[in-house]
Structures are given as structure tokens and as C-alpha cells.
Amino acid sequence: MVDVDDEENSINAKLDLARAYIEIDDNDSAKVLLKEVQLDGNDRQKDEADGLVNSLD
Questions:
Q1: What structural domains does the chain harbor?
Q2: Local confidence pLDDT in tens for the 57 residues of the chain
Q3: Inter-residue contact 16 to 49 (CB < 8 Å)
């Protein structure tokens, strides 16, 4: 079982939700979440968020 309240899992959930927003072309909502990941995530999460943000430009 995954504890979504755990910081790392919370950030991963934001990445997953951002990907879902990108799939439905809601890039503004995706960017908001990705900025949060860029601020609060670990290095791997930040790199992934950077890549997703760059794909939106």
C-alpha cells in the first residue's frame, strides 16, 4: 500500500496528474503542478518535471 501523504509519493502523484493534464491538452494546469515539483521534488523528480515543461514549450 502506498502512503500518498508521504512527501515523495505526493510529488510522484503530482507528476502523474501533470502527465494526465498534458494528455488532455490542459497544459496550464500541468505547468502549475510541474512548477511545484520543480520546487519540492528530489533530483529525479525535478529532472522529470523539467523534461515535461520543456516538451510543452
A1: 7-56 (1.20.58.2200)
A2: 555 456 778 999 999 999 999 999 999 999 999 999 999 999 999 999 999 999 997
A3: no
